[in-house]
Amino acid sequence: MSAKTAACPRRSCSRVTKRYHPPLTPFQRVQAHPAVAQEAKDELAAQFGKLDPVVLLHAIRQSQARLTALADAGPVNEDAHDPRADVDTFLSGLRHAWKEGEVRPTSRKKPPAPRGRRRPDPLAKVTDDLKAWFHEDPSQTGRELLAASPVPYVLIRSRTSRSALIGRSP
Predict the structure, then answer these.
(1) How far apart are CA 77 and CA 57, in angstroms?
(2) Which helix (H) or strand (E) holds 62?
(3) What is the distance between the alpha carbons of residues 62 and 22, in angstroms, rounded to a whole number?
(4) What is the pLDDT of residues 14-57, one digit of tens each?
(5) What count of other Cβ atoms lies within 10 Å of the Cβ of residue 23?
(6) Are 159 and 166 in contact (CB under 8 A)?
(7) Which of 125, 130, 165 is nearest to 147 (CA)?
(8) How many CA atoms lie within 13 A of 124 on its CB side?
(9) Burial readout 104-138 (b: 16 or more C-beta within 10 A, e: otherwise)
(10) CA dist., res. 47 & res. 54, Å (int)
(11) Which pTM was predicted?
């Protein structure tokens, strides 16, 4: 009774229409399965009732931190190893650990900030004039605005100039 099994396939000439069972979690499938003993279902339901996602997430992050520490640590001399020193070090670091940012090994880096212009803006000197001309007659095309400006037309795309004046990105 998985979600992939068709509940009731229907054929109408050469067309087959399939209706599927609603998706269920593994726990829900075990509860609904007739071959599983009622005692096992009751035990699973009791265990499911005790689950707390916050506690589970905390345990997962602690395990990840332990695994990362084991992977980063070098070989340990068993004679000189004092477990109390590890606990003291951990507890002393808790006070400022939140300032260091994300400590989970599975966290992703923040994406870099978008780069700015790579070339100087060819319209920087005449932007105010172009805006004034555009506000006087908004029906003008970018080509008409650039024809009236002193900046050489070859350097500027007309669509870019009009969208820059309107306030949109090209």
Answers:
(1) 32
(2) helix 53-72
(3) 35
(4) 888 888 888 899 999 999 999 999 999 999 999 998 888 888 88
(5) 10
(6) no
(7) 130
(8) 5
(9) eeeeeeeeeeeeeeeeeeebeebeeebbebbeeee
(10) 16
(11) 0.31
Tell me, rounded to whole angstroms, the distance of Cα 93 from its chain centroid: 29
Residue-wise burial string across 151-164, b where 16 or more C-beta atoms lie within 10 A, e elsewhere: beeeebeeeebbeb
Distance CA 105, CA 46 (A): 33
Q: How far apart are CA 39 and CA 47, in angstroms?
A: 12
138: pLDDT strictly greater than 60: yes
For residue 86, give the 3-state DSSP assignment: helix
Return d(Cα 105, Cα 67) in angstroms, integer: 9
More confident residue, 34 or 69: 34
Residue 167, pLDDT above cutoff 70: no
Written as six digits, the tokens of 96 are: 């400022």
12, 62, 65, 91, 158 from 102: Cα distances, Å = 57, 13, 11, 18, 46
Q: Which two tokens stand for residue 142?
A: 């970018």
* Residue 6: predicted pLDDT: 63
